[in-house]
Amino acid sequence: MRPLRHGMVADPGACHRLVRLVLHDARLSGAWPLDRVLAGMPVAATASDRAAVRTAVSEAAGCAVTLVEEPLAAAVGAGLDVTDPRPALLLDVGAGIVEAVVIRDGVVTDALALQLSATTGTGLPAYALDGVVEMTARLLRRLPARLRPAARDGGLLLTGGGATQPRLAHRLRETLRLPVEAAPEPAHATVRGLTRLCLQPALAGGLAAGR
User: Fold this and answer.
1) I need a surface site. Which of 33, 51, 72, 109 has the fewest CB within 10 A?
2) Proportion of the chain above pLDDT 70, given as a percent
3) Omega before residue 149 within 30° of 0, cis
4) Are 207 and 72 in contact (CB under 8 A)?
5) Count of CB atoms within 10 A of residue 67's CB?
6) How far apart are the C-alpha atoms of 103 and 84, rounded to whole Å?
């Protein structure tokens, strides 16, 4: 049973059951009923992907659902000020999907994504490494020239389970010629960011996907 694939809903029924299990655990440790649930989605998710997540989660939770793009949540979890007007570069190396994004003023202003057929316990499979490095370099080239110096000064932040792969960071530094650092506990950055946003509903509402 694979409720999710590439960060998207692959089996709505299985996703609904998975959410119910997660919410059952939450019920044991927190207040009930819930007022609102935050759910992370890849930037690359289509309107139908977002609708499928919203439906599965809202039916299981019995409350409103706010969708937040996962790289934004990961940036919050890493301690970035996502409302800063200066561009921030982030590479989210997740399970089944890698997204390179530019964040400014609380919005993902540009993004590129690479879907993976498989991941390994040590990070990106060898066949995907070149593609991820080139994708990130392309994103940097697409930035308006006036924004590139600030983006380079800020460097590239890595989040997601594959962020600690030494070969990835080395290749990115070698190719992009800018600082590249992994967030603290990068595999938990998105969940940590969603948790922080739960405590800051005004910010969460401002970052909501499709607002």
Assistant:
1) 33
2) 90
3) no
4) yes
5) 22
6) 9
Residue range 73-187 in CATH 3.30.420.40: yes
Per-domain boundaries in the chain: 4-70+189-207, 73-187
For residue 78 the two structure tokens come to 């890493």
The two three-digit tokens of residue 60, written as one number: 């299981």
Query: Taking the CB of residue 25, how many other CB atoms lie within 10 A of it?
Result: 9
Q: Report the SS3 class of residue 129.
A: helix
Higher pLDDT, 4 or 171: 171
DSSP 8-state code for residue 208 = B
> What would the two tokens of residue 178 be?
């800018």
**How many other C-beta atoms lie within 10 A of the C-beta of residue 149?**
12
Query: What pLDDT is recorded for position 140?
Result: 96
HSE of 49 in the Cβ direction (CA atoms, 13 Å)?
A: 20
pLDDT tens column, 91-148: 999 878 899 999 999 999 999 999 886 555 557 887 889 999 999 999 999 999 999 9
pTM of the entire predicted model: 0.88
Q: With beta carbons less than 8 A apart as the criterion, state whether 14 and 105 touch.
A: no
Tokens of 202: 């005004």
